[in-house]
Amino acid sequence: MTIGLICAIPQELEALRSDLVEAHSEARAHARFVTGVLDGYDVVLAGSGMGKVNAAIVTTLLADRFGCRTIVFSGVAGGLDPELSIGDVVVADRIIQHDAGVLENEKIRTYQPGHAPIINETDRLGYPVDPGLLTRVRERLDGFEVPGHVVYGTVLTGDQYLNCDSTRAWLLAELGGQAIEMEGGAVAQVCEAFNIPWLVVRALSDLAGGNALFDFTAFVEQASATSATILRRLLPVL
Ligand code: ADE
Question: What residues form the membrane-spanning segments (predicted)?
Fold first, then answer.
């Protein structure tokens, strides 16, 4: 069985596409799926485009049409944890869709996707990574050197690029989290529906505050390459 790899934007995709061999490409929905071999492992690499719906379409196709055994997202994110810097890597051990929930008092009360208080309540918030996969990932990355630090933690997903200091502080106070991005929570939700393991690897291109769009432009290539390096290191345990 093959491994599904997803990137959202061309810079993330290019960091993996160039080393894929025996590549065969086909278009499905809005996306292109490249089947090939990366470092000796059978993979299907897809460029999803940005946002949760785009990521959900591609993840569904990788699971159902391409029969992937595991699906991994590799790319960039904005850093939330004040301990982290641009270039550091966050491997999600849990993902929360921060923009799903109840709108009240002009704010969102984040809630599990597919649920709402009173209507169909749940105690769950977010999606945990498969514990066995996480253990293998930690072992495999232990002592592995990349330009930034590698940490494990909560990643927030939403359909907004965060470029705002006050919203960043509010999200951090409400939900915590190490990084914010726009696809991982959808990958996790779809994989859970298909009962297959998922992983999200994100290198920080910016810190999601008021300079985030400028920093992104400067660091997106470097961060995409770091994330791709981590992903390739992980192929044997996926
Ligand atoms: N991906 C990279 N940086 C991001 C940010 N600041 N907000 C959302 N997604 C991102």
Answer: none
